[in-house]
Structure prediction request, 138 residues.
Amino acid sequence: MRSTGIGLVVAVVLGLLTPAGTAQAVDVRPEWGSVSAQDQTLKAGCRGYRYHYEVTAPRDGDWDLSVSLVNPHGRAIWFGYLYEGANAASGTARFRICRSKVTPGRYRLRALVTVVDGDDEVRGRLPTARFDLRKKQG
Prediction:
């Protein structure tokens, strides 16, 4: 991991630990990329489910993409992290969940892009993706 990658990880962790009332609102920036997932059927056991991501960094610098999977009850149940240097700017990734621990329904992928250039950092949320995880028929 490059030294800037470590800084990005620290920034993400500190952002997660910031009390909710003190965090600044981050604007939705659809021009910075997207996340999406197709409707899928829940499989037995713990499995990986595919989602697609694309990051179009708004400026020079190193980017990272933090992705949360939110269940139908509004609770984040999975968190993923992709960053420049280890991941392509677009591609397919997976979130891993266990059928016995989740319920069928409408899920959301929420994503935040952070770009760091020296001491300068900018953040933007990507539009939320919605998709269904269905119970297997039969």
Summary: The radius of gyration is 16 Å.
